[in-house]
Design brief:
The protein is mainly alpha-helical. The protein contains five helices and no strands. Helix 1 packs antiparallel against helix 2, helix 3 runs antiparallel to helix 4 and helix 4 runs antiparallel to helix 5.
Length: 85
């Protein structure tokens, strides 16, 4: 687990705004039961992520359920508009 976290940190040094690296760091910190670090990494992931589904997952990981639900609702409405024309 420590080796995986070191790899993610190396990716973050190369691209500090890489949202999936922040998300991966959050998951690794959670596995290590480093809750504060995990939450902070999830929140960082949300600030860099452009994909709404992945951003919702990050907010869910950070424990921000209202924000997560809001994003999922926006995605469902957008999908419905595309399907219904």
């Amino acid at each position: 687990m420590a080796a995986a976290l070191a790899l993610v940190r190396r990716i973050q040094r190369g691209d500090p705004t890489h949202p999936r690296a922040h998300f991966a760091a959050a998951q690794l910190h959670a596995e290590l039961k480093q809750w504060a670090e995990s939450e902070a990494a999830y929140v960082s992931a949300t600030s860099f992520e452009t994909d709404l589904a992945q951003r919702a997952r990050a907010w869910f990981g950070a424990g921000e359920l209202p924000t997560c639900h809001s994003l999922w609702g926006r995605m469902l409405i957008s999908s419905w508009r595309v399907v219904s024309g």
